[in-house]
Amino acid sequence: MAESFARTPTGLPRSRTLIDLEDMAAQTFRRDSNFDEIYKIISGEESLKKNYLKIAGRPNLGLVGQTFMYKATDADELIFERYDTWSACFECLRSSAEKNKNELEICLVTSDTTHLGRAFSFIHRIFFIGHDRFQQAYSLPSQIVIRILHNQWRFSDDIMARITESLCPKEVSLSAWQPKLPSQRNISQIEGSVQVPLKFAFEWINAPYYATDLSVYVLRPYGRYPQVKTLDVILTSMKYDQIRRAIVVVNSHNTLAELRNLLPQVFQHEVSGLPYIMRLFRALCTKTTDETVTFLTKTCDDINYMVYEGRLRPSGSKMQYLRHLEDCHHVAKDCCRKNQRTLQVLLDQVNLIQGPRTDDETSLINEFEMARNDLDYLHDEIESSLQRIPGVCRDIREQLDFVQIRRTNILGILAGLYLPLAFVTSFLGMNLNQYTQPQPSWRNATRIDPANPDNITISHSEIVDSGANQAWSLQLFFEIAVPLMVGTILIPLVIGSIIRAFLRALGRGRTWWRLIFASFVVWSVTITLKSF
Fold this sequence. Notes:
The protein has helices at residues 2-6, 21-29, 33-41, 46-55, 86-99, 122-130, 134-138, 140-153, 157-167, 182-193, 213-219, 253-259, 263-266, 274-312, 316-352, 359-428, 474-508, 510-531, and strands spanning 68-72, 105-110, 199-205, 228-235, 245-250, 440-448, 456-464. By secondary structure, the protein is α+β, with helices and mostly antiparallel strands.
């Protein structure tokens, strides 16, 4: 039986006996017409094709709903079951986008790849981690969604580049220094003024949570830069009055789920062009403002809590949390400013459009103005909240110093008690009298006469321990130890005053001290000479 498996099949060369799993998977899935359509869309990119072969026939396990969401006017929302294959889900998106060519369309995509590792098999995940390719592979579903929309919506390569830039995961950290020479500012402003913006970025930050000392020591949650939630809106045309499609890229699964409830506000009326854009941005501005208000509310509550909790139970974790909260405030301020600039750019572009305004458009413009004022107000409130943090940190630091001083005093007193006891114990050698009564002990001895084995003699003798007669008494031990303990504790407290008083007396009676010292020297010399 084993030889039949090892034998080379007749009619095939030796080199064809090895099985390529990816080629076999490709041959299997290509029988499906859905697979053929998606495979044609991504046929120009080898890395996407190879990774797509690994997940095309696998169930999505509910990950599709965490990856993208598509909505169109008068169209049912796409619903996917857990055991629908990835190829079937992508084909459903492609067919829906093909049917709704004349409708308003919007697609939400996330760049978060937290749970997308389950889309691949265990062996593939091990391979990706070993070759440091897991981040690129896990972003495959989002990349395929964008390729499908690119194929159906036919937007430009510039828009495609902006979408790809938003989908690339960014490592958030402190911004690097970049030179802004005065000689180049005017040139950049002139070049940027003629460009019609296609991408509008919104940012906010969620409030952090307090972690205890053990969690701070083990997990170190406050050693990383605050994570910012991003929301990028990419328009598919430079003519705002003719836009019917938009792509929204977020960097969190939770944000994608929350925006699902905001989409019906955009499709309440069958409008296109400028009203469609303005309704979309109104919903996103509401989301951004609400998140900023939530952040500010929680941080203010935490600061108020730390004011008295830090006095009652000061700890290093509270200090680290407040420092991290300070960093979050700085990030929140930057987010407010960026959102204000985004709204201002949008208003400037809307004002450039000529023609009469409808009542709906005028109302939306006024709402944008109010949203910008709200962001300005929130920026000032964040600045006001930020000013309170150093004072709370200072109070906690003072309480920590008080606690440390108290602990040091306790340890000093214990050391003052221990050192004399240790000295006396080592000097006396722990040779102390025993106050208990000596306990007698008995010794039994049995003797057998070798000449007469029947003659057995048994003797009982009592041994009395008279105690350690050469030891010190316990009373003498404490008579020596107690003065030393008192002196060890009191002398450090009064030695400074004694030395200062002695030096002041020495300064006042300088002549007398010189006479006393001279007399002592003469007496010492005289005694020495007499000894010889």
